[in-house]
Write a structure and sequence with these properties.
Elements lengths: L4 H12 L4 H6 L8 E8 L4 E6 L5 E5 L3 E6 L4 E7 L5 E3 L5 E3 L4 E6 L3 H4 L1 E7 L6 E9 L4 E13 L9 E6 L5 E5 L38 E7 L5 E2 L17 E4 L4 E6 L6 E5 L18 E6 L3 E2 L5 E2 L3 E2 L1 E4 L4 E5 L26 E3 L17 E2 L24 E5 L5 E6 L5 E6 L9 E6 L5 E5 L12 E7 L11 E2 L3 E2 L3 E6 L12 E9 L2 E6 L5 E4 L3 E11 L4 E10 L5 E8 L10 E10 L3 E2 L11 E7 L5 H7 L10 H9 L2 H4 L11 H7 L6 H11 L18 H13 L13 E5 L11 E9 L10 E8 L3 E2 L6 E3 L1 E3 L6 E3 L5 E8 L3 E8 L10 E6 L6 E6 L7 E2 L6 E7 L4 E10 L2
């Protein structure tokens, strides 16, 4: 259902309140479950910029020269045009390298319905280095070739990359804004600002462009298109039309790579993201601040500082690249461009600070920006009045707020400013949504937020590139359905129970109707109208049970579960026959025995299943054991599971933005890194530090961003995975089904990992049913108990990251349920320095309850040894009872000797 009249009334009331941000704060934030992500089209080829048309079609540009249209009525993409574009540059060694150029921008004229004008901005192919703004007539199919008008040319250099800009929009006066990049190579500037004034180094000096009042690069331009294909200059740009050494098209200057501009339709203020440099270091005395990306707001024309300032006008130092000497910091009140590459005025307008700025580190001012690599992408300012009677307009809570994102980090944030345009606050929009290289974002005519995702990786057709829209539902919501079965495979007759447990409806008062439809190989088998029915399958086959849940207003949703009847999965057992079944002690030997029983195949015991058919393995996972991560990665414990955690961290981070596994991207391939450091014993520690702190120089000029929030252990885990890619996979031989195993930690690995012992058997299958696999896994953990993992904690408090537990009062206790105490000879309590009581106060170790049998006592004095444990205690509930306040780090178990 769409917005009811009462919701529209709230929007109207909101608008009559002058759109006051203070009023918006009083409104209730809508629940996340009222927003739905809808994937429109996938596997796009380097998409760059788009526009949603009035009829719902989406026209967009691809960097390599294609213009395409997505039609929601058919779900199909249609090629509109293909332009020959320049996408490469040639450096001083005449090497041809992929750059950022290409087809960058596309927009329809505000009067498209009558004049059918379409504007594009692209890098002209050939030897004439320039980017051009051209206009065509387009009537919905191919462009009219004879209608081409070249409106504006931006002269560039193609000796070095980067930064093109290309964002376009119209204001309410039908003025066209166009963003242009600084066309400057900055990776040879040590992560600081590129001000290389040496002869022949103009491509590495942004003073020729962004800081140049007489150059169109590094700017946001504002022009008014005329019917004959020319343009006029609107009143109120940065420089008067006749002023010497200036270009009248300039609205803002001092831009590095202004990205995805937006105009607030109510205030007329201009918003945009500003992609910053790649450096992680700061040297305010000799060079200047570390790099920052920015989100900017312009209430009027201005100079936004680059390349002399960044962020909130943090000044760079006037550095001489020839002599490597430092001058004075630049003055934001009176910036001066005295570069020999400058063709404009020397005295520049005062610098305007950014609205929001953020580095590779966590910013105390803007913690929601997170940390790591960054690439600011602007987005739209929401105004309900822009959509009239559209079906899915966002709620009044977002009135006047700015939606922003980051190409690397993939979050969506909402920024709020006050009536004067000052920063007021920020919040996360849909925290559970992570975008994959968002590169353009705007609202469509029906009120939906559209996002174009480029994918994670430069200059390639990323499989995750897609166009999505995020719909708001202010009315009745579909039920959220969960479907499960007590058993999903087994011999016939197979009797199971189906369950809708966990199904819910977010709208209060909705009654739900349940219907299960079961099909066999696509044909109808049975229909049941209960939430938890039982069903028996007598014929072998693959069945699909689909649960459809309908609410009282007719909204419905479905989910399915697959059942395979005709082959009982094998049952695998793995028992530790001597030694501890939960903890390992380095260098100690355990014995084990595997059992396998399969209804159709037989068992190990009756020798119908042979030991050679059973896989038994043992591995040490230095990252510890996370069954969820390993299951999501679909990895075998025998090989790649060793690095499952590292792969998961890479997938969640910005690594894939710059690296591929085998192919070169902005940074080297992981396999190339592995080969370079194959024989370097210090590589793990060295590279882990570089991952955390950032750096450059080994693989060229490209900067690796810092990842200060990454722990040393996690960085080392990632590096170990990368280095493993240069080593041929080891052939893992199966262990015997009955035997002994010594828990020796591999050289160079930490002691906080786990030994994973796994037994698995895949049966022979049946005529109509595929083979089934059964497995049993035993995890041997390090002999350390964390207080935060206790099953009960009476009289305790924990710090924010649960690394420290504090006993509040005498009698406080920790309970660890069903511990295997086999082979345990001692128990010690590790406390924070200076937190224990005086000698004579005893920590009690008890079994079964806080008043249960006393196993031993530990002196509460700081640094005292643990207590000896004697006797074969087997499995028991272990209690530690404390005599008074102290701070506990961990509990250590020692082996019996």
């Amino acid at each position: 259902m769409y917005l009811r009249s009462v919701v529209k009334g709230v929007c109207l009331l909101f608008l009559t309140a002058a759109g006051s941000p203070a009023f918006s704060q009083a409104l209730t934030k809508p629940a996340d479950n009222r927003f739905t992500k809808v994937v429109l089209v996938q596997r796009l080829e380097e998409p760059m910029q788009f526009q949603v048309m009035k009829d719902g079609r989406v026209i967009y540009a691809e960097r390599k020269g294609k213009i395409k249209v997505y039609d929601p009525a058919t779900g199909q993409l249609t090629l509109v045009a293909q332009f020959p574009v320049s996408t490469t540059y040639k450096n001083k060694q005449r090497e041809v390298t992929e750059g950022e150029d290409g087809l960058q921008g596309i927009i329809l004229d505000p009067d498209y319905d009558t004049n059918h004008w379409l504007y594009i901005y692209y890098s002209l192919a050939g030897n004439d280095p320039k980017n051009v703004l051209v206009r065509y007539e387009w009537y919905g199919k191919e462009l009219i070739a004879g209608s081409r008008k070249v409106m504006l040319e931006v002269v560039t250099q193609r000796e070095e990359c980067c930064h093109v800009g290309g964002g376009m929009l119209f204001d309410k006066h039908k003025n066209l804004f166009l963003t242009t990049g600084d066309n400057t190579f900055s990776r040879a500037s040590d992560g600081y600002t590129p001000l290389d004034e040496q002869p022949g180094q103009s491509p590495r000096d942004a003073q020729k462009s962004s800081g140049n009042t007489n150059d169109l690069r590094g700017k946001i331009l504002r022009i008014h298109p005329e019917p004959d294909g020319t343009y006029s200059i609107p009143e109120g740009n940065l420089f008067p039309k006749e002023e010497p050494l200036t270009r009248p098209e300039i609205y803002t200057m001092g831009n590095r790579n202004p990205w995805r501009p937006s105009i607030d339709s109510k205030t007329g203020w201009l918003y945009w993201g500003e992609v910053g440099p790649d450096g992680s270091d700061e040297d305010m005395e000799k060079r200047g601040p570390r790099s920052h990306d920015e989100f900017n707001l312009a209430k009027k024309p201005g100079n936004y500082g680059w390349p002399y300032f960044v962020g909130n006008n943090k000044p760079y130092v006037d550095y001489d690249f020839a002599t490597k000497t430092s001058g004075k910091p630049f003055d934001p009140a009176q910036p001066v461009n005295d570069s020999p590459n400058n063709t404009g005025r020397k005295a520049l307008p005062p610098a305007v600070p950014a609205l929001v700025w953020y580095s590779k580190n966590i910013m105390p001012e803007f913690p929601l920006m997170e940390s790591g690599g960054n690439s600011a992408v602007g987005g739209p300012v929401f105004r309900a009045g822009d959509f009239g009677n559209a079906r899915r307009v966002y709620p009044a809570y977002y009135e006047g707020k700015w939606f922003i994102t980051d190409w690397v980090r993939g979050w969506l944030n909402v920024v709020e400013v006050d009536e004067q345009g000052n920063y007021r606050g920020m919040e996360r929009f849909l925290p559970g949504l992570h975008l994959k290289g968002p590169i353009d974002m705007k609202f469509g005519p029906e009120g939906d937020l559209y996002v174009l995702e480029y994918g994670n990786g430069y200059f390639k057709d990323n499989p995750e590139a897609e166009l999505i829209r995020i719909e708001y539902n202010g009315g009745n919501r579909k039920p959220e359905v969960q479907a499960a079965a007590t058993k999903t495979a087994g011999a016939v007759p197979l009797k199971i129970s189906l369950s809708a447990a966990g199904t819910k409806d977010y709208d209060e008062g909705d009654s739900l109707r349940y219907e299960w439809k079961i099909t066999r190989n696509g044909a109808a088998f049975k229909t049941m109208k209960q939430a938890t029915p039982s069903v028996t399958f007598t014929a072998p086959g693959t069945y699909r049970a689909t649960l459809t849940v309908t609410d009282s207003k007719g909204a419905k949703n479905s989910k399915s579960v697959e059942i395979k009847a005709g082959n009982e999965p094998p049952v695998v057992g793995l028992k530790i026959t001597s030694g501890n079944s939960r903890f390992f002690f380095p260098g100690k030997t355990i014995t084990y025995a595997v059992s396998v029983t399969d209804k159709e195949d037989g068992s190990l015991a009756n020798k119908r299943i042979m030991p050679a058919q059973v896989s038994v393995s043992a591995n040490y996972l230095s990252e510890g054991y996370n069954p969820t991560v390993i299951a999501q990665q679909q990895l075998s414990f025998d090989a790649a599971a060793q690095h499952a955690g590292a792969r998961s961290m890479i997938n969640k981070s910005d690594c894939k933005a710059c690296h591929q596994t085998t192919g070169k991207s902005l940074g080297p391939a992981f396999t190339a890194v592995a080969l370079r450091y194959r024989n370097d014993a210090a590589a793990v520690e060295k590279l882990a530090k570089k991952v955390i702190s950032g750096g450059s120089g080994v693989w060229g000029d490209a900067q690796m961003p810092a990842h200060p929030a990454l722990s040393a252990s996690n960085a080392q885990a990632i590096v170990k995975y990368v280095l493993s890619l240069g080593t041929p996979a080891k052939v893992v031989r199966s262990l015997p089904v009955t035997g002994a195993y010594t828990t020796n930690i591999p050289q160079g690995e930490g002691t906080e990992g786990s030994f994973i012992i796994r037994a698995a058997y895949t049966d022979r299958g049946a005529k109509t049913i595929s083979a089934q696999t059964g497995e049993k896994v035993v995890v041997l953990q390090p002999p350390v108990l964390k207080p935060s993992k206790a099953d009960e904690a009476g009289g305790f408090t924990f710090n924010a990251d649960s690394t420290l537990a504090t006993v509040r009062d005498a009698g406080g206790y920790l309970k660890f349920s069903k511990l295997d105490l086999t082979g345990i000879g001692s128990i010690a309590v590790i406390t924070e320095a200076g937190s224990r009581q005086a000698t004579g106060k005893m920590i009690e170790v008890r079994s079964g309850s806080p008043e249960g049998p006393l196993l031993g006592t530990i002196d509460a004095k700081q640094g005292s040894p643990g207590t000896a444990i004697t006797g074969n205690l087997g499995t028991a509930d272990l209690y530690l009872v404390f005599p008074g306040p102290m701070r506990i780090r961990s509990v250590r178990l020692g082996p019996a000797h």
